[in-house]
Amino acid sequence: MKKSVTLIGMPGAGKSTVGVLLAKSLLTDFTDTDLIIQRETGKSLCEIIEENGTESFLETENRIICAKNFNNSVIATGGSAVYGKEAMEKLRQISTVVYLSLPVEELEKRIKDIHTRGVAMKNGVTLRELFEERRSLYEKYADLTVDCTGLTAEECVEKIIEKAGL
To answer: For the whole model, what pTM was predicted?
Structure first.
């Protein structure tokens, strides 16, 4: 059985919030890949994207995830981690990958201004368009999908534990 759990999904899906609670429930470490990227580059995600562009950010994200050791952890990825084929292959080998699924309408309620979050997206793209672009990647890499619609973070954790048999 894999010792780690990786959470993937859109910005606003609750990966970090659910991840902390899941790690507490499983008595494991919690790792947020966005925070690792910021720590290693010394810049916010917004700064990296503004200074170097989206493609460069995605390459940095992929490289940093591939280089890290995530033993016995709950890993909350940035929403764009699914663009990194090597990173996702690594995460699938070492962990159970869980897609936290929410309808775009729910994400729109949770996120007031997506541009302040350091989200890797092309200029002029809406949250809905980004959702449509990424959904198939989340589904492709997920070992299981948890629909978090209308659930509290605690209820999402219970669902993950139940569905993953943890």
So the answer is: 0.93
